[in-house]
Amino acid sequence: MIILYGAQAAFGLPQVSPYVTKTEVQLKMAGLAYEPRDAAPDESPKGQIPFIDDGDARVADSTFIRLHLERAYGVDFDEGLGPRQRAEAWAVERMLENQLGWVIGYFRWLTPENFEKGPAHFFDGAPAGMQDALRAEVLAEVRAAMRAQGVARHSDAEIVELGLRSVAALSEILGDQPFLFGDRPCGTDATALGMLAALYTPFFPCELRDRALGFGNLVAYADRLMALFYPEFPWAAQAQAPLAA
Question: In this model, does residue 245 exceed pLDDT 50?
Fold first, then answer.
């Protein structure tokens, strides 16, 4: 059986990490049996979650996990899509992971109030005398990574505008379709669910979430995907709830 190493339900989400959500949804799409287990990023070969064990193979990074599943099990997550749609699906995935994901992460990690009630608790299991130092160390690493990527070089207002460009583009691509490329979800829908859930959870209030809730087709799309892949999770109430004080 495949072992999926990731995080756990928290912050109003079935999985804390949008990348773990992506992989878990793709496993569900493929109908593959798996066992979820908690893991820290430093346990992964690439220093990040998710990663999987599949027999003798350990595969890290959600994109390479997808490739492994396709090759090992004959899965085509984009079945029914033509060459142009497959290219567009890849472009949308890169926009979501390489742009919107960083923006969402910025407001989760570098907004002090959100950090204190969210990621700061990742270190609660460490020895009491080490917790503050670990929080400060990891926060500094995240800040440096976001500055190197570029997002943390901008003002909050500019970062909101960058995020909205991607949200608006995704809304336009979705239109009035049930899923990104028609009547059935593809691999990129799994990526979109991870990112939209991370954006729409009311646990992390920010202006970007406020304004993204104005894209009604995306709110309904996130609800639709959550109902399909996490039917036991009370998502509709979460997504539509008022922002936390």
Answer: no
DSSP state of 232: T
Tell whether domain 83-240 is in CATH 3.30.200.20.
no
Looking at the structure, give the CATH architecture of the domain made up of residues 2-73: 3-Layer(aba) Sandwich (3.40)
Measured between alpha carbons, how far is 136 from 133 in angstroms, rounded to an integer?
A: 5
Per the listing, tokens 């992971």 go with 97
Respond yes or no on whether the N-terminal peptide bond of residue 50 is cis (omega within 30° of 0): yes
Per-residue pLDDT for 213 more than 50?
A: yes
Q: SS3 for 34?
A: strand
Question: What CA–CA distance (Å, rounded) separates 79 from 10?
Answer: 32
The phi, psi pair for 13, rounded to 5°, reads: -130, 145
Block residue for tokens 């009491």: 128
- Rounded distance between C-alpha atoms, residue 47 and residue 41, angstroms: 5
User: Domain ranges in the chain?
Assistant: 2-73, 83-240
Number of residues that make up the chain: 245
Residue 56 CA to chain centroid, in angstroms? 27
User: Cβ distance 50 to 80 under 8 Å?
Assistant: no
DSSP notation for 47-112: SSS-EEEETTEEEESHHHHHHHHHHHH---TTTT--HHHHHHHHHHHHHIIIIIHHHHHHHHHSSH
Mean pLDDT to the nearest integer, 169-198:
98
With beta carbons less than 8 A apart as the criterion, state whether 156 and 210 touch. Answer: no
Question: pLDDT tens, 71-109?
Answer: 999 999 999 999 999 999 999 999 999 999 999 999 999
What pLDDT score was predicted for residue 244? 43
For residue 241, pLDDT beyond 90: no
